[in-house]
Design brief:
The protein is an alpha/beta fold and 437 residues long. It contains 13 helices and 18 strands. It folds into two domains: 176 residues, Rossmann fold (3-Layer(aba) Sandwich); 246 residues, NAD(P)-binding Rossmann-like Domain (Rossmann fold, 3-Layer(aba) Sandwich). Helices cover 30% and strands 15% of the residues. The strands form three sheets. It has an eight-stranded mixed beta sheet with strand order 3-2-1-4-5-6-17-18. Strands 8-9-7-12-13-16-14-15 form an eight-stranded mixed beta sheet.
């Protein structure tokens, strides 16, 4: 079986790979798999590294049985009858990818989506989420340091670089740990205390973000205690303060007699209102790391921010690191996705407009929608470590069999959106997305 690894071309920053040269070498040795890798000038791993791992470097992937990618494949480059594995971003009917989906159907391809590779309980198994949190937190701290400096307040945080400026995660952590020691030793300006960073969510993305934040000196505050804590006088300037918000902290039942129940909230979010506005006046930074769709209440609305800024209260909220990056979603003032080359803008709550950079009225918003690409070698290695096992299992798959009997591992079978151009049983609802194209 021949696997292809296509060149990523979504943007100039996308340097990730689904499998590293080390994975390719081991798969070739242990399972006799062959790899053809398209050449790339921006990939985090050089062509020569793949060549030394035993792969063939070739522009032409027609000889491949299965083609691996990270991001979507441009419709003009889709090859007929091939088996593709990548993040397709189609299962919700995302309009920007529907013509690609139609092309995949028309060319009778098979599509396996990483996002849908889950265990029998629905837990995702292959993801970059942790590295979105890691890179997002580094960038959020970088933005905070720059914002404070622009306001005339220098802190050691100003010495943090954007994630993509570090050679790897180890060097980023070493730098931030050194800055943490500086804060512990010399403190922050008293005008900034307490410097509170709130984390919305507690999953893989939030975990990655907290892994970086925890390199700094900090104390944990419970959401229920936040207001009272910030009003007291005895607060240290030699540490930061962390608040982690769960669903029970962020929303409440509309019925005042009802109790919060997590599964009820997931099943009937329309029965709940956001209560997050009660925390915003005490946050210096908000790191948004929650899963969200339109059924759920928003964390921050534009209406609230306008009233807050018109009230004359101190403008404490400096930066919003919207790692999940749902445009006009849970953070409604996120009006546009950004790129690693131009990662932030300022949202003006009064005019409800945005402008690039870190200066101006309103919070700085970090809204990079492919953050893991800022640490491409580390994030690709972690991703490939998990994907490796599924590729190994695919080495004996007989794709000539009907979908019902094909010997794909169950995790991959659940992730198969198209099989020879037909929607798999779990995804027949998607046919309506392309019926008028």
């Amino acid at each position: 079986m021949i696997f292809g690894i296509r060149r990523e071309d979504k943007n100039e920053w996308e340097a990730r790979v689904p499998l590293t040269p080390a994975h390719v070498k081991t798969l070739g040795q242990n399972f006799k798999l062959k790899f053809i890798v398209q050449p790339s000038p921006i990939r985090a791993f050089k062509d020569q590294e793949y060549r030394e791992a035993g792969a063939q470097i070739d522009e032409d992937l027609n000889a491949c049985d299965i083609i691996l990618a990270v991001k979507e494949v441009p419709e003009r480059l889709i090859l007929p009858g091939k088996k593709y594995i990548f993040f397709s971003h189609t299962v919700k009917g995302q309009k920007y990818n529907l013509t690609m989906l139609k092309r995949l159907v028309d060319l009778r391809t098979t599509l396996i989506d990483y996002e849908r590779i889950v265990d029998d309980k629905g837990k995702r198994l292959v993801f970059f989420g942790k590295y979105a949190g890691i890179a997002g937190m580094i960038d959020t701290l970088w933005a905070l340091g720059r914002r404070l400096k622009s306001e005339g307040t220098y802190t050691p945080l100003a010495d943090i670089a954007q994630a993509l400026k570090y050679s790897d995660l180890e060097s980023a952590k070493k730098s931030i740990s050194t800055i943490g020691e500086n804060i512990k030793r010399n403190g922050l300006p008293s005008s900034l205390t307490p410097l509170v960073i709130g984390f919305a969510g507690y999953g893989n993305v939030s975990g990655g973000a907290q892994e970086i934040f925890d390199l700094l000196p900090f104390e944990v505050i419970k959401p229920a205690d936040l207001a009272g804590f910030c009003r007291q006088g005895s607060i240290s300037n030699k540490k930061l303060y962390k608040v982690v918000f769960t669903e029970a902290d962020m929303v409440q039942p509309k019925d005042p007699q009802a109790m919060f129940q997590l599964q009820d909230y997931y099943s009937h979010p329309e029965k709940y209102d956001s209560r997050f506005e009660e925390y915003i006046p005490y946050l210096t930074v908000l790191v948004n790391a929650i899963y969200w769709d339109a059924r759920y209440p928003k964390l921050i609305t534009r209406d609230y921010l306008q009233k807050f800024y018109q009230s004359g209260q101190p403008q404490i909220l400096k930066v919003i690191g919207d790692i999940t990056c749902d445009i006009e979603g849970s953070v409604e003032c996120n009006l546009a996705a950004t790129t690693p080359g131009d990662p932030v803008y300022v949202y003006d709550p009064i005019t409800r407009s945005i402008h690039p950079g870190i200066e101006g009225r309103g919070p700085v918003v970090l809204a990079v929608d492919n953050l893991p690409c800022e640490l491409p070698r580390d994030s690709s290695a972690m991703f490939g470590d998990v994907l490796y096992n599924f590729i190994a299992k695919m080495s004996t798959t007989d794709f000539s069999q009907p979908f019902e009997s094909v010997n794909l591992p169950p995790e991959l079978k659940r992730a198969t959106i198209l099989y020879d151009g037909q929607f798999a049983p779990d995804y027949t609802y998607m046919a309506k997305f392309i019926e008028n194209l």
